[in-house]
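queue> holo job accepted (6-O-phosphono-beta-D-fructofuranose)
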Amino acid sequence: MTVSDPVVEEVIATISRSATEIRQGLIGRRGTVDEENPSGETQVEADIWADELLGDRLATIDGVGQYASEERAEVVDCGGDPDAEADAYAVAVDPLDGSSNLKSNNSMGTIFGIYDDAVPARGESIVAAGYILYGPITTMVLATEETVSEYELTGGERTIVERNVTLPDEPVVYGFGGRIPDWPDAFQAYAREIEQELKLRYGGAMIGDVNQVLTYGGIFGYPGLESRPEGKLRLQFEGNPIGYIIERAGGRSSNGRQSLLSVEPDDIHERTPVHVGNADLIDRLEDRLE
Ligand code: F6P
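queue> job finished
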C-alpha cells in the first residue's frame, strides 16, 4: 500500500526498515539501567538504544517537525513547526512497548503515531499510525486514512500479508490490565460479564494483546485503577496510535467515556485509561462506567 504524502511514507519506511535491526539489537540489551523513563518506569538498555536509533533517523527527515518519545522527557524540535507548516509532522514513538517482557522473552512492540499537529495533540490529528510486533515473526500493522494493512518485516523489507484488515464481527478474546482488587467496582462488574463470554488472553505487552484483539476480535483494556485513576498507559504514545488503528479497522477506542482520539491532552506524558476493541463491547463498557 502506498501513502500519498512522501514525508509520511518516509517516516513509515524508516521505522519499518529499522525494525529488524531493533529486533536483532535486543540481544545483549535485556538488562535494566539505573534510570527511569519520564513516566517513572524502569528502563532496560534496549529502551534507550531503540529510542536513540529511531530518534536519530526520524529527526533528520525533512518535514518532521518534532520527535517525541516515551523515553524522553522533552519533545525534540527538529526544525519545522507542525502547527505552522502544511508539510511538517510530529512523530510520537514508544520505541519498545512492553520492554519488561524482554526479561521473560515474551513478545513486545514498537508503536508510532504521525500527528499533523504539534504534540501533545488530539488523536484526531493523526494521519497514520502503526505498530511493530516482535513475535515469532516481526510484523507491522499500519493504519492510514484509507485502510489498515499487515506486513511481515525481514531484512529491512516489508511484505504485505493482508490489506483492509478489519476486526472480526464475533469477538473471542479479552485482556485487562491492573490488579483485580484495584479495579473500580463498575469495571469489575463489566469484567465479570466479559469473562463469561470471551477467552482470556493477557501477555503484559499492549502490542501483543492488541494484536490478538485485531486478529480474533474482542477487547483490550487497561482501566483507571482505584490507586491510579488515570491508568497506566500514555495517551500520546500508546492510547492515540492504538485507538486510531482500531477505529480504522472498524472498532472503537475509549477512555471509559469518549473516543481516545477526541481527548484534549495537557501533557506529552499524560496517562489515560485505554480500552479498544469491537464497537459493541466498548459501548457496553461506557454504559457500565457511566
Ligand atoms: O506501557 C507499558 C506496558 O508494558 C504495556 O505494554 C502493557 O499493556 C502494560 O504496561 C502491562 O502492565 P502490567 O504489567 O501492569 O500488566
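queue> The domain at 6-162 is CATH 3.30.540.10 (Fructose-1,6-Bisphosphatase; Chain A, domain 1).
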